[in-house]
Amino acid sequence: MKKWYPEDWLFTIEALQVGKENRAEECRLGLEAGDTFTCRFETPAGFCPTSFIKIFPSIEAVRCGGDLRNLGGNGPAEMTFLCPDGAVKFRITGEQTPG
Fold first, then answer.
1. Collapsed DSSP state (helix, strand, coil) of residue 94
2. Which residue, 7, 18, 21, 53, has most beta carbons within 10 Å?
3. Using CA atoms, how far apart are residues 22 and 84, in angstroms rounded to an integer?
4. Beta partners for 36?
């Protein structure tokens, strides 16, 4: 693969809580609280693809200059969300960086 486009945002996705008791067995992928993933445009390796589908519109909004507080976020580039199964609570944080 030849990446030719300089992405200027880096996103960190952190699992904050898994199920009611923070047990990996409550997540289909076995994610645990504290697991952290980073990405620019691609789905991070080992991250849940259905959760990424859910957060991708928020990532795009940030890239386009949007403010996640307009969507219930904690800051201009920070938001918490539940996975589609409701098992894992995540926080996504974007940081503008040189491509």
1. strand
2. 18
3. 17
4. 14
